Amino acid sequence: MKIQRIFTLSFILLVIFxxxxxxxxxxxxxxxxxxxxxxxxxxxxxxxxxTSYTSILRxxxxxxxxxxxxxxxxxxxxxxxxxxQIPPVIYCAKENDMEIRTRSGGHDYEALSxxxxxxxxxxxxxxxxxxxxxxxxxxxxxxxxxTIGSLYYRIAEKSPILGFPxxxxxxxxIGGHFSGGGYGTLLRKYGLAADQVIDARIVDVNGRILDRKxxxxxxxxxxxxxxxxxxxIITAWKVQLVDVPEKVTVFTIEKTLEQNATRLIHRWQxxxxxxxxxxxxxxxxxxxxxxxxxxxxxxxxxxxSIFLGGIDRLLPMMQEKFPELGLVRxxxxxxxxxxxxxxxxxxxxxxxxxxxxxxxxxxxxxxxKSDYVQKPVPEYGxxxxxxxxxxxxxxxSVVIFSPYGGRMDExxxxxxxxxxxxxxxxxxxxxxxxQADEVQDTDKYISWIRRLYSYMAPYVSNSPRAAYINYRDLxxxxxxxxxxxxxxxxxxxxxxxxxxxxxxxxxVKTNVDPQNFFRNEQxxxxxx
Length: 528
Hints:
- The protein has helices spanning about 1-35, 55-60, 85-95, 150-160, 175-180, 185-190, 210-215, 215-225, 260-270, 310-320, 335-345, 380-390, 405-410, 440-455, 485-500, 500-510; strands spanning about 45, 75-80, 100-105, 120-125, 130-135, 140, 160-165, 195-205, 210, 235-240, 240-245, 250-255, 280-290, 295-305, 335, 365-375, 395-405, 425-435.
- The strands form 4 sheets. The chain has a 7-stranded antiparallel beta sheet. It has a 5-stranded antiparallel beta sheet with strand order 5-6-10-8-9.
- Helices cover about 30% and strands about 20% of the residues.
- It is α+β, with helices and mostly antiparallel strands.
- Helix 1 packs antiparallel against helix 3 and helix 12 runs antiparallel to helix 14 (about 440-455).
- About 45% of the residues are buried.
- It is globular.
- It starts with a helix and ends in a 16-residue tail after the last helix.
- Strand 13 (about 280-290) and strand 14 form a beta hairpin.
């Protein structure tokens, strides 16, 4: 009798498994059948049976951690060529219980733009990449599939004295970057990319194509820093361009621990957030070999800077505010703003066409985290950090300190959903990389960065320990894969990204997508 019960239970489980698999397959087939009613989309639809499916999926994956055989793959990939092709995808996905993930450049640190644990469709916006620059108005319309690099290129093509305050990595897609805030070397002068958005177009859960006026100010507020994927599919952004001088000055000064780096970094915390808005000095920390004997490990700090002006104005400022760094004329180079973009990205400054490339020279395996510092870290705090850099897993680790102050102190926390403004001295990005032949050690590398994150806890913001949504980190909390996510559950991660702005984001979500169709592991939930 006991054997019979076991057999019956096993049979039931098998039936459930095959039925659920069949249901998933049926949903997928029904979704494709639904799309047949919209013939213009068929040429831009790819399933695993298409020969180009894998290459299209892989092309915009920017973290090899999510390319393993065990990583869930989309049932369908759609690459629309016009915003009018997106509403039918939403209709058919809703009708057939398929989740939508929207991908612009593929840089989501946790792959939420192209991986899901339930049956899903990728709407890949790679073909929506048009950029229109209006020099007279100092504005640009930018489609979400364009990259930061291509935006910079098109601006510089039209004017040498206009720029835009977005990020330093040129292959990042506009769609995710803008909707999460987006920052770069101009943040102390002009704030974030999202601070400059003056209009947008979005396809909502009902398939309506809306602009700023028709979507209303609440939804327009939410998509500028609140993560656009929670609210719809954004198809275009209108941005205000900013003034840049004909010549800027850049420098990078490297110091190891033996060259007094710890004391310089400690001093930088007091100086960098209070400098003139035109001056941005970040610190990039990496592990190195000591030049004294060529064997011992050390930490190298690169003071990496741009000044919106000439050398003659910069030098007296540095001699007054940060003489300890020892900046001299020979350290500095004057160049155009667009050349500085290439300089910060690590390219030759006259290789402008490289900004049009969508792919990185090499795609890494990595894990990242973020922090905000509100009180200077004591020297002994850094000395403990260096010990972590000496561990084997830190061989290719990078920690970046980006100074705040300037314009960031002036913009209210509630201006857009991105809340990290006055009171922050600098932002930290923690990164650890590894190679393909080290995949078996992935857990060790992730464990290392979690230990680093834990070590930094006493020295960074708390209640909440703030984080930056564009440095996505699922360790700080996730929603349920299935079923409703409570406000309490989502607020675990939501307050860290958005602080008190999370409440307003939830209200907007409840209003525009009450059934939570646009969802992922860290999407804004509606109130139930």
